[in-house]
Specification:
Blueprint lengths: L1 E5 L10 H10 L4 E5 L3 H13 L3 E5 L11 H10 L5 E10 L7 H18 L3 E6 L2 H9 L6 E3 L6 H9 L3 E4 L9 H9 L5 E3 L21 H12 L3 H15 L9
Parallel strand pairs: 1-2, 2-3, 3-4, 4-5, 5-6, 6-7, 7-8
Helix pairs in contact: 2-3, 8-9
The chain binds nickel (II) ion.
C-alpha cells in the first residue's frame, strides 16, 4: 500500500518517527507521501524524502495559512519543487469551515499555487471543506492541472463533475467511522480506478483507534473498509490504489515506489 497523504513532517512525529516507519513497513505500507502545509513543513517533507528512499514530498501552503501567501513564498516553493522527490503542489485549496484566513486570500493563494503547478507541469493535492462551489470553479480554471481531491467529503454529483474532468479522489479514516453512511454512499459511486488511499496522519484516525494519534500503519484499516464498500478483495484494492497513486503522481520511472 501507499499512503498518499501523510504528515510525518508534523511535530507530532518528532519523537518516534523511526518506530512509526517500522510499524508502517510491518503493516504493508511500502511508501508514504508527506504533504506540506506551510513553508517549514514543506521543507521538512523534502528533508525526510531526502533521508528515506520510501518517503516522498508534496509542497505548498494550506488554505488555513493563506493569509501568509507572498510572491517570495511562491519563489521558495518553486525552489523546493526542483528536488526530484517533490511530486506535486499541495495541500492547497479552500476551507470555509474554519475560515482561518480571509476567503479572498484563500482564493488568491489557491489560484497562485495552481498557476505554479501549471507552469511546472505538476499535479496538485486539493483540500476543500465547505467550499464546494468555489473549489469547483477554481479547479475548472486550470484544466491542465491534474488534481487529487484529498479526503473528499462532497456529494456524488460534484464527484462526477471532477471525475469527468479527469481528477482523482483520496479517502482516509472517515470512511471507517461508524456513522459515515452518507460518505460511504459517495465512495460506492466513485470508480475504484480513481481512488487513492490516505491516512492524513496525525489527523482523522480510523475506527477503532479514534482519539489516538493517527499513523500510516492504520492504512490497512482504510483499505479493508474500501474493499468492503466496493465489494472487492483487499488485494484488488491494494493493486488498484497503488496503480492509481503511481499514475496520479507520475511515478512511472521512479524505482523506489
Ligand atoms: Ni492533510
Amino acid at each position: 500500500m501507499i499512503d498518499s497523504h501523510a504528515h510525518l513532517n508534523d511535530p507530532a512525529f518528532r519523537g518516534d518517527l523511526a518506530e512509526v516507519l517500522a510499524r508502517a513497513s510491518d503493516s504493508g505500507v511500502q511508501a508514504m507521501i508527506n504533504v506540506g502545509y506551510d513553508l517549514e513543513s514543506s521543507r521538512h517533507a523534502v528533508e525526510l524524502a531526502d533521508q528515506y528512499s520510501h518517503l516522498w514530498a508534496v509542497v505548498g501552503l494550506h488554505p488555513h495559512d493563506a493569509k501568509l501567501w507572498t510572491e517570495e513564498l511562491g519563489d521558495a516553493l518553486q525552489e523546493l519543487v526542483k528536488h526530484p522527490k517533490v511530486l506535486a503542489l499541495g495541500e492547497v485549496g479552500l476551507d470555509y469551515h474554519y475560515d482561518n484566513s480571509p476567503r479572498d486570500k484563500q482564493r488568491s493563494a489557491f489560484r497562485a499555487q495552481l498557476n505554479l503547478a501549471r507552469q511546472l507541469n505538476l499535479p496538485a493535492v486539493i483540500h476543500s471543506r465547505e467550499a464546494t462551489r468555489d473549489t469547483l470553479e477554481i479547479v475548472g480554471e486550470y484544466p491542465e492541472v491534474s488534481c487529487l481531491l484529498h479526503c473528499y467529503s462532497g456529494s456524488l454529483e460534484t464527484a462526477t463533475i471532477y471525475e469527468e474532468m479527469g481528477h482523482f479522489f483520496s479517502f482516509g479514516g472517515p470512511i471507517t467511522f461508524q456513522n459515515a453512511h452518507k460518505l460511504r454512499d459517495v465512495v460506492i459511486g466513485i470508480p475504484l480506478e480513481r481512488i487513492l488511499l490516505e491516512t492524513d496522519c496525525p489527523y482523522l484516525t480510523p475506527h477503532p483507534h479514534r482519539g489516538k494519534r493517527n499513523e500510516p500503519a492504520y492504512l490497512s484499516l482504510i483499505a479493508k473498509k474500501l474493499a468492503e464498500i466496493h465489494g472487492c478483495t483487499l488485494e484488488d484494492v491494494i493493486m488498484q490504489t497503488v496503480a492509481n497513486t503511481r499514475q496520479f503522481f507520475r511515478l512511472g520511472n521512479k524505482e523506489d515506489l
